[in-house]
């Protein structure tokens, strides 16, 4: 009985040419293609932003954790010369630059908190218990 129902539904699907599973697969494929293009666009935008910030004198960090200052750029050969410490330079591929390090401004530094005396600590703790 069930085989007759299955065969009848298969014939009906073939007759109409519409199968919901095909629609689901097409939507999933379209979504995957959209996400691939979107990821590429985001990566390209991030790379362009990094290159716009990269200039001589900028503090940078490489993908392998070295921090340095840009001394020279050679866009034709994709090379950047970094000064790691005074007198020590390294030539790296421009793609190895992970980010441009922004200097921390003085007002962004955390403020020093006043040291609390033991009496003030005891008073504060007693007030919290109430």
Automatic annotation (TrEMBL):
PANTHER family from the UniProt entry: SEC TRANSLOCON ACCESSORY COMPLEX SUBUNIT YAJC (PTHR33909:SF1)
Family: Belongs to the YajC family.
Chain segments annotated as transmembrane: 20-37
Membrane topology note: Single-pass membrane protein
Principal place of residence: membrane
Low complexity composition bias: residue spans: 107-116
Subcellular location: Cell membrane
Composition-biased stretches (Basic and acidic residues): 120-130
Keywords: Cell membrane, Membrane, Protein transport, Translocation, Transmembrane, Transmembrane helix, Transport
Leader peptide range in chain numbering: none
NCBIfam families membership: yajC
The keyword Transport belongs to this UniProt entry's keyword annotation: yes
Highest rank taxon of the organism: Bacteria
InterPro entries: Preprotein_translocase_YajC (IPR003849)
Name the record gives this protein: Preprotein translocase subunit YajC
The organism of origin for this protein: Zhihengliuella alba
Region (Disordered): 107-130
Keyword Membrane appears in the UniProt entry: yes
